[in-house]
Amino acid sequence: MSEPCERRKQLRDLNQKAWGGELLVVDSPDTSLKSNMAVLKKLSSAITTETQNSLIDSIKRVSLEKYLDELIPATADGLLSLKKKDTAAAVEVLSVLHQRFASRFTTKLALYFFRSVEDFKEPEHLPVLGTLLRLYCEMYLVDLIRVDDSVEKSKLPRYLVKSDRPLLLAYISQLLSRHANNTKLLSIVSGFVKKFDDVLLRENEFLSSSERLSLIKLFTKYSEHICKVTENTHQEISSLENQVNEISRKTSKVPESLEFDLKEKKDEFVKLEAYSEFAHEVFSIEKPSLARETESTVKITAIPGLSESNRWESEEQRKFYEEVPDISEMVDPSLLLRREPDIEENRAPKDALSTFVEELDAATTAEEVDDKAREFWQQEMYTKSAESRLYRHACSQGINSKAFARFLCINRNVLNSLIQKIENKADAALKDQSMISHKDYNMVRLYCEMANFNLVPATKFLHVLRSLVVNVGEGAGLDLLTLFFDYSKFTILYRPEFSMAVNNIIHLFQSVTSRLQGDRQKAAQAFLSSLAVAEENVKVETARPKLQFLDYVLKRALQNQVFFPALLEFEWDPESYSKIVDFFTHPEMITYDEIPALVSMLKYLGERDPVLVAVVVDGLIEEFQSGFELDDFRQNRKRMAVASYLAQLAVKRLITGALFRTLIKYAIFESVHGDPSNWFWANMVCLFFEISKKHMPLELTLFDYHLLLQGEPPLDLRLRVIKCFESRGVARANSVAEAAKRISEISKAARQMPESEPDDDEETDQGADEVSDSEATEDTDDSETEDESDEDDDTESELDENMINVQLERSIQSEFDSMLAASLKTSSSTNARPRVRQPVGAVVRKEQTENGANKFTFLTKSGNKIAARKIEVPDHVDFVAEQLSNAELWEQERDRIKDFVLNQHE
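Structure tokens predicted for Up-frameshift suppressor 2 C-terminal domain-containing protein:
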């Protein structure tokens, strides 16, 4: 037998003797007021394990006979502050008091416990009740809780008067029934069962079998009730989540009250679920049936189960949108032929048209709308002012969009200009609303209803959807997207020709949602989950764990470069290699801010596999060209991402400068073949110049020329172009002729000085540096400006140049002497050039012209061809003076070295 059970048995025997009259006798008790009051004060303050022995000694010494009326209240006060760990100490102290005073003390204390369940009825009293429950049970087990004949029934609580149940069972039953739905009681009950499992769950001498089984049955019934509460709470949480998601999906905000209620319910559910698990193990009851919805991590890639037959909610709705007659079949065609919108309004009075509009808004069925359309022509209401009145009504508040859209569909062949005008108005309104918080619900709904009747071109409607997805994190983008799916859900999801485009839009929406934060991300995720109309109708993309992990590492590498080496650890089998290539050739799947990181990653992996860079660049250039060939505005975002990607590749020197300039020229020249009103090419060229800071005068002038040819660009583009030219310190031409003249001058200068690739590759830059070092000369001011720009903007290029191997430097140096001699030989000077290495400054001295100017010879290399160009500069120019001074110093140094060498040989 364990030590607690042994002590319980000892106390039980002593207490039973006290009930029988064998009381504890105190010889010469202390009757002083001070001693008795000190014991009462100790009892009322607290009973703890530390004060147990001293308190028991005091009780055995003092009289307390005259203070029995104060003893019960003092003890009750002490028990209120009792802690669970001190329960055993309290039982020891109460047992000593019982052994001294028997029923005079114990029955009154028992009444205090009986009434505690009713006195402490508020939820905040439950912690106290939990401690009293443990103490009550301990006292019951050691026979301190009894009701004998001396207790009047009027003093007993009602739940004991008409019940013959054991006192422990009655007390626990009353406690559980009074606080059955309070989750704070769960920890009390579970703690109580764990504490007294030896007497509740196993045969023992303290509780009879019938009493023990009754207690188990009571706790089992309570646990079953808790399981039902758990199920109900789970349903309430689901309902609240749906409510919150619906509100946040439409407003992009979560109401604080609902969010607080949801949090409270979830906290309660955690406690209920934990107790249900405990009760299942202890009392073998069934767990609550919770329809758990695991957090979905799948991607919706297709909706193949949706069909045209499922498109409408009812047959009546289908007929309203699909069975639309043409007005030519409803009225006399002569009425349509006589329509003249430019004539004066003399057929129908204004009040008749206003009445017609009001009645059209009141129409709810297809037949009513058809009747109003027929009436419009039969009463000859169509005039110029009538069309304006209908347009104003389309933009007004409170319009019946559904009826008005059917009216427009019936008249689609004769009111085409009005339909186009409303469509343009809606496009402009949607563009403005996507960037601000204001929403014109009537215009949005009318636009969606027109799309339901196929009055809006499919490409334009899908483009608006795609734009809203891109701007879902800004302004009212998510709200507008939600309205689109509310008003045109069946058209978007169920129209067969929309299926592929909608799946692509969903892919894009998933990508954008993953990068949102806070409430916007929650709202976007809720909206995304609502698109999965049924699990069986959604095709789930599955991938091997290896590819899933590779995809994870690639995405994390965009955020942190420490993941770069992990990519080299992968075994690049064909499947993984295809995944990597696909990742690098689709910049539209990431944000613009992540493109530089994508380029850095490609350069890092290119060191292992240079072919990867070639494959990616080849695919991007093909995508770049095909974008101009197709000229599909729906691909503009992708095309701009590819353009930004190519520009970043040029900055990192993963593509040559010549290729990059060719791409710019390609984009400029394609403006001739496209729509003059489409300025997408200009935005792309501006992006090229904004990302790359290299000196490209020819391309910049060509850009200026074609902008002037196209006419005046929109204001936003005009500001972007001005900023682009100002950042390079170049003024725009005033006319097309001036721009053409500039192009001619730059081309002529390029032919005379074939330096078409000043920043084309590292070899050209390095060769220019070596000319300057070996001849102690400097480039022209233009070249200096270009080099400084390269150093400032292409810091990584400098690191690459420093890593050129020494052998290449030596080979270039060895070829320089022959290059210089050959270039000097081809110059137009009449004086014979010595076939030795000479500095430019020495040549300048011998080539002074009659007017005192000096000729500088500049060398350039294009492929295997060497060309020379002479520039005359007066003596008083600082640049010339410095070169002549350097040449003299070089001559003096050469003579000194020659003399030194000759003296050594002598």
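Residues 545-752 form a domain with the Serine Threonine Protein Phosphatase 5, Tetratricopeptide repeat fold (CATH 1.25.40.180).
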